Amino acid sequence: MTEPLAPAIQLFLTGLDLIGTFVFGLSGAVAAAKRGLDVFGILVLSVVAATTGGIIRDVLIGAIPPATLVDWRYLAISLTAGILTFYRLTVIDRLQSPVQLFDAAGLAMFAVSGAQKALAYGLEPPMAALLGMLTGIGGGMARDIMLTEIPTVLRAELYAVAALAGAVVVVVGESFNLPSTATTLAGVVICLGLRLGSIYWGWHLPKVTPSKSAGRDRNSK
Are the C-beta atoms of 24 and 139 separated by less than 8 Å? Predict the structure, then answer.
């Protein structure tokens, strides 16, 4: 059975989680609003985007029941993000590409918090990094699937790779006993920088470009 976390560590991880919950909630709510969903649909997408990654993480590391299901603040923050979007969408929409910006921020926060919590629960560094990545991409994947879109993580953009990079920074910093605050901030900056670079400058992983001959072969069948 996992030992309880020290109060200071628990407070730090909870703070990261709550910030990530709010920004991912905004990303889900804005995406729903732009697809024309009603207020109920906006709130549902806000909660799903905000909580899925954290629930998956907690289940996998044995933090049962997940914090999202026992701490009222997670639901309250998720719903607040949805309500704020419903009534103030025009204000939020003034930001350039608001869904992508909020999604990038949520990805960074959840990736580092997921890695930190996995380490605190005794996971080995490689698995902690992978779990941090999974925590970061879970909410965005659930949001995209519910909106019948191909999840961003499956495209050639730097999404899962950005989350993994941020989580690796945290894990490496912990391995070298560096201050957790510094490594957390560095992880957020690395993840956010890679994701924003993908959004604004087109950074992406290599992908297969179908040849013209392959296209002709398919059309001839």
Answer: yes
